Amino acid sequence: MSEVPADVKAAARRAKSLPDDVLLEECELDVFVASGPGGQHRNKTESGVRLVHKPTGVTVTATERRSQHENRSHALARLRERLEKLAFVPKVRRPTRKTRGSQERRLMAKKQASQVKKLRRDKDW
Q1: How far apart are CA 56 and CA 27, in angstroms?
Q2: 37 vs 23, 69, 97, CA distance in Å?
Q3: Structural domains present in the chain
Q4: Mind listing the pLDDT tens digit of every residue in the chain (125 residues)?
Q5: Which residues contact 68 (CB under 8 A, 6 or more apart)?
Q6: What global pTM score does this model have?
């Protein structure tokens, strides 16, 4: 997986917190004729929506509804999901050690279990 540039991650973090209308202003909105089931209404109207977020270059489309307005809201939701994934910064993992007390408790439990098994083995039936 290729590394995302830091400026793109910063733009995604900033954009995901914007209100819908401001986020739409940052996007290039493209409407087109969507194919698929839906009959004459879907085949003759430009109900498909493509959003291109200019600062990050993220592109999403929505064509599953017959209404352009519904597709726009679905595309905006998808854009927010993609921006969330793009802006994610994993936490730095630091190596840890077991405490002395937890190590001792573990060893005591193992000794007790072995004693129980030894007593079971040594019984004369």
Answers
A1: 10
A2: 30, 18, 59
A3: 6-87 (3.30.160.20)
A4: 467 788 888 999 999 889 999 999 999 999 999 877 777 777 788 889 999 999 999 999 999 888 899 999 999 999 999 999 999 888 999 999 999 999 999 999 999 999 999 988 877 66
A5: 31, 45, 46, 47, 48, 49
A6: 0.70
